[in-house]
Amino acid sequence: MDASTPPLPSALSQMGRFRRRLEGRKAIVFLDYDGTLTPIMPRPELAQVSMEMTELVGELAKRCSAAIVSGRSVETVKEFLGLQKVIYAGSHGLVIDGPPGTGLRLDVGREFKEGLEALYRKLSTALSDIPGVLVQLTGYTVPVHYRRAHPSRIPEVDAIVEEVLQDHPEIRRNQGKMVYEIRPDVDWDKGKALLWIRERLGLSAENSVAFYLGDDTTDEDAFAILDDGDVGILVASQSRETAARYTLKDPSEVGMFLEGLLDIIDGSAGEDQI
Ligand SMILES: [Mg+2]
Fold first, then answer.
1. DSSP codes joined into one string, 83-97
2. Where are the chain's structural domains?
3. How close is the Cα of 25 to the center of ligand 1, in Å?
4. What is the pLDDT of residue 138?
5. Cα 45 to averaged position of ligand 1 atoms, centre (Å)
6. Looking at the domain that runs over 12-108+188-265, which CATH code has it been given?
7. Are strands 231-235 and 208-214 parallel, antiparallel or unpaired?
8. Which protein residues have a CB closer than 5 Å to ligand 1 (ion)?
9. Which fold has domain 110-184?
10. 32 carries an active-site annotation
């Protein structure tokens, strides 16, 4: 971001604005998982959401539509969060699974399953000699985590991934935070998943306000498709180029924001602000 660009306002300072915006409209809340509900952990399997955060998301899901949008598989996020009423969008939105009875179910990646499994096996073997690299198969994504690899080995990781991917034109990679997100090359992302869910719920930019909270580059697709009246919130401690219009520093501020949103929905917040 340009040094002269003013920093984004904190979402916590805008609760009055959000309350006014929600008058006569329903809230629909989209939450990324890693880095948004939990701090980024050196080992992804440790990124367990806190009890407090789980409760907040659960309370939110009782009052409005709430979706978790993650690069992880639906199964993993479900297991971590354990909430029934939440909509889960895994593998960057390629798989969507709503609460029982809602009929919210989408599987965009099915035809790529075999190719991804083959790719996962090839990458696991090819990268096994580089300490600190973790290859996973999570739903329709093969994340290659290199956060714990020695920085001098990262070009090697990059070259190996590039070489293996040459045999798989149907698969592409995106750059995440110290992770390559390898996934089907389809025109589908977290933003498209957001629109699909919203439409399926009978909600629109007129009758609802979508809140999207995320920290990663893959969340930019969602920030970018939001309507003017919606609320994109980048979770980041430092400013960076983003399509989001508000910011929160870290998961603990996300918790504070969700508490504020609950108060707004319950009608107990900001009564003094006109
Ligand atoms: Mg994230």
1. -SSSEEEEGGGTEEE
2. 12-108+188-265, 110-184
3. 27
4. 85
5. 14
6. 3.40.50.1000
7. parallel
8. 32, 34-35, 215-216
9. Alpha-Beta Plaits (3.30.70)
10. yes
